Amino acid sequence: MACQQSRYHSFSSASRLQPRPSGVTIDESFLTEDKSTQNRKLLQKRRTLTGQFSMGGHLSPWPTYTSGQTILQNRKPCSDDYRKRVGSCQQHPFRTAKPQYLEELENYLRKELLLLDLGTDSTQELRLQVTKLRKNLAEEYLHYLSERDACKILIADLNELRYQREDMSLAQSPGIWGEDPVKLTLALKMTRQDLTRTQMELNNMKANFGDVVPRRDFEMQEKTNKDLQEQGQCPCPQLDTLRASYEEVRKEHEILMQLHMSTLKERDQFFSELQEIQRTSTPRPDWTKCKGEGSRQGPRSCLHVGPDSSSLSPHADVVAGGPERWQMLAEGKNSDQLVDVLLEEIGSGLLREKDFFPGLGYGEAIPAFLRFDGLVENKKPSKKDVVNLLKDAWKERLAEEQKETFPDFFFNFLEHRFGPSDAMAWAYTIFENIKIFHSNEVMSQFYAVLMGKRSENVYVTQKETVAQLLKEMTNADSQNEGLLTMEQFNTVLKSTFPLKTEEQIQELMEAGGWHPSSSNADLLNYRSLFMEDEEGQSEPFVQKLWEQYMDEKDEYLQQLKQELGIELHEEVTLPKLRGGLMTIDPSLDKQTVNTYMSQAFQLPESEMPEEGDEKEEAVVEILQTALERLQVIDIRRVGPREPEPAS
Question: pTM of this prediction?
């Protein structure tokens, strides 16, 4: 089918950009002419306008040719007929028909111009109307251009859809030629979207589950493994043996690693101690010199302290009693303790030589029981007499109902015992003796309490602990024979001291007579563990209890310092010290904590601010001073650091 062309009247001239009529002119000269002349010209102009607006002419030129496209007929683009029609259309360019509303506008304009009375005096009105018509015509023309462009776009879209439909029709099988192309296009679009979404999900699945074993395979393998374990049908007969060997080797390796680490720590510690010893130590003394065996020492003989302090004898005994007594005094003591023993022996010798002590005066720094001017007689009692006197003083102190300060009690005790005249002499004598004999338990403890270096509650609590332990052992002795087996001994110690470590319990058992070759059935005379000699010295078992008590106190205060996290020279507030104590020992009760705080800050309990009071922050003390004050009293752990969970 040939391309259809619409034949329309087109404008003969002028541009499509100027919508004004080319044949309309205004001749103003006719306004001045006479009436007859104007009528002739008017008739002539009407004829001219009639000819111009006839079907052979137009008000304005119309775009005869267009480059747009018309809707193609339903023809196959590759057929011969299609090519012929395309060639024909190329030879004769397409023409676009003038819109109907534009023709109607032109006809209306013609009628108005014909009916217009050009002979009147309304020339100005005519000009305005003409201008208005030109403006309206231009607006309509622009509107038409917009509509034409929109039509071109729609035509292009329709042609594109037609081409797609023809392509789909050619690609489809004969059975579906009747499908709706729009429906097929939408189906294709949705299918592509589904394909894209499926591809993204597949990529995510590969990325997230690429290394995942399928559940079916896992369950099958698990079932196979379980069956093999139940039936004992192991793929490798030696697997069980190898597994057991591996576990054994692994455990041995862990143990060896722990031993290795502990050995490294001990090595570093010993190396540090060795360097410190090499830096500060002096040659070990030859203690055989104190036995009086001067013939073995050559010219470096010892000084003999006796009645004649100026006498020098290489064969004289330094310690009264000779080598036998020195052997007894030195048994089981280290070098530091031997120095104390030697100083005590020398000091006791010098003390026995004095007949009088000079009075210390009445200064405030002098203890009340020593304030005296002049000479005071030395009563020269034996060591045993001093110990017995101190024991009697302790008994009276414990039985006393109205407590007074310990120094005042001591002097009053001497006045009651020896009378007011000799009380001062006995006070100086006992004071000088207990100041010398540091190795004697009774004297050293009495001296510490008397001088305020230790609270008397420490001595009382220690005596009560020893008495309680003896009571527990007596209760365990069902036969009342004074004998316990080693197993019973161990059980009583653990029940009486639940906070002691296994190492501490072992030390107490060794001090009580246990040794590695002992069996649980071996018998122990427990009553002998609590006996004292004539000078008040306890057995090694009770001494070990006292040593552990002092070590536990030092460790407790060291833990407190570490918990506070400050240096000794820094200040600590009352709330912080209380919080540190409750952290390292949560089992402390409020009354005990208040007692500790009263001692550390030297405040009566009645004057201490309540917990949570703002005044607490104002109570401060140097940490070292607070710890030294706590060292004086009976401070010990009440419960474990981490409380046991409630069952």
Answer: 0.52
